[in-house]
Design a protein that fits this description.
three-stranded antiparallel sheet, 6 helices, five-stranded antiparallel sheet
């Protein structure tokens, strides 16, 4: 076999090659990783001029990444391209004022004390952290305007659907259209990285 196929030999020799592999199976996980990488490469290297929004090229650094090797806070910042956004973002949760921490925890950030908060975004109209989202070492937490708060362990992400908003395991999320696209790519990457 040529070098490209050598890496895929186990996929080609599988008894289930002509069937759709079941979610969670090693073949499904491998195919999901490859598909995610191809989509990102296509969006950034080949059709960037046709995208409605510029996507951060830094996400290509994580093409073959494994969860144990990833600097998760950096990956989150790279995928979201925060320099392009007008959102109020906090990346040092420990330095945040206690009243803001308490408000976020009361409204949507129900993270365990052992979870490191890597990024917190205030999407409230008055800067009071009544709405927003957060990424921790274990999960994604969010509270959209006029909706209930949600949390999703990275291992539990099953689907991310893009419309003018996002549906994460059938739960509504919305930011800006550009942020929604970047968020979808990040959540799909986390889904693949943390697949059981």
């Amino acid at each position: 076999l040529n070098p490209v196929l050598e890496d895929q030999k186990d996929l080609l020799q599988s008894d289930h090659f002509h069937e759709v592999p079941p979610p969670g199976s090693p073949i499904y996980t491998k195919l999901s990783r490859k598909w995610q990488s191809l989509v990102e490469k296509l969006l950034i290297d080949y059709i960037a001029a046709y995208n409605a929004y510029e996507l951060p090229a830094s996400i290509l650094y994580y093409q073959e990444a494994k969860a144990k090797d990833v600097n998760l806070p950096q990956m989150i910042r790279d995928y979201l391209g925060l320099h392009q956004e007008n959102e109020v973002i906090y990346t040092d949760f420990a330095a945040l004022e206690d009243d803001k921490k308490a408000k976020a925890r009361k409204r949507f950030l129900s993270a365990a004390e052992s979870e490191a908060v890597h990024l917190l975004c205030d999407q409230s109209m008055f800067g009071n952290l009544k709405e927003g989202f957060a990424f921790t070492s274990r999960a994604f937490y969010w509270k959209p305007h006029f909706h209930n708060a949600h949390q999703m362990s990275y291992r539990d992400i099953r689907s991310v659907q893009v419309r003018d908003w996002l549906m994460i395991n059938e739960q509504y999320f919305h930011s800006s259209k550009r942020m929604n696209i970047k968020m979808a790519l990040l959540l799909k990457k986390l889904q693949v990285l943390y697949a059981a």
